[in-house]
């Protein structure tokens, strides 16, 4: 599965980069394939692994601010591996033709 998620600390003002970095640090330390862009962090793995990482990322931010908003979207598809790369490669292939 691939889960794309965004964690936003509530009540800390507009500068949330340090809080978001705490969540991304958890994801990167997990060892699961991941990618972070301007809006979401995506992580790939088995259901329990991915949900554990999301939970721990939320907890890392929550520990610093007390209130967190989580947006999560998941692609649950059995038998697919390296979806983070393959999905993008497919789109790029269509764009180049």
Automatic annotation (TrEMBL):
Superkingdom, natural source: Bacteria
Family matches, as InterPro entries: MTH1187/YkoF-like, Thiamine_BP, UPF0045_domain
Record SUPFAM superfamilies: MTH1187/YkoF-like
Residue ranges occupied by any Thiamine-binding protein domain in the UniProt entry: 3-92
NCBIfam families in the cross-refs: MTH1187 family thiamine-binding protein (TIGR00106)
Sequence similarity: Belongs to the UPF0045 family.
Record-given protein name: MTH1187 family thiamine-binding protein
């Amino acid at each position: 599965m691939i889960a794309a998620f965004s964690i936003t600390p509530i009540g800390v003002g507009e500068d949330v980069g340090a809080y978001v970095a705490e969540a991304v640090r958890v994801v990167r330390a997990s060892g699961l394939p991941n990618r972070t862009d301007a809006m979401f962090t995506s992580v790939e793995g088995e259901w329990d692994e991915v949900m554990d990482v999301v939970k721990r990322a939320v907890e890392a931010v929550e520990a610093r601010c007390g209130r967190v908003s989580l947006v999560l979207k998941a692609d649950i598809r059995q038998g697919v591996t390296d979806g983070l790369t393959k999905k993008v490669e497919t789109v790029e292939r269509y764009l180049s033709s």
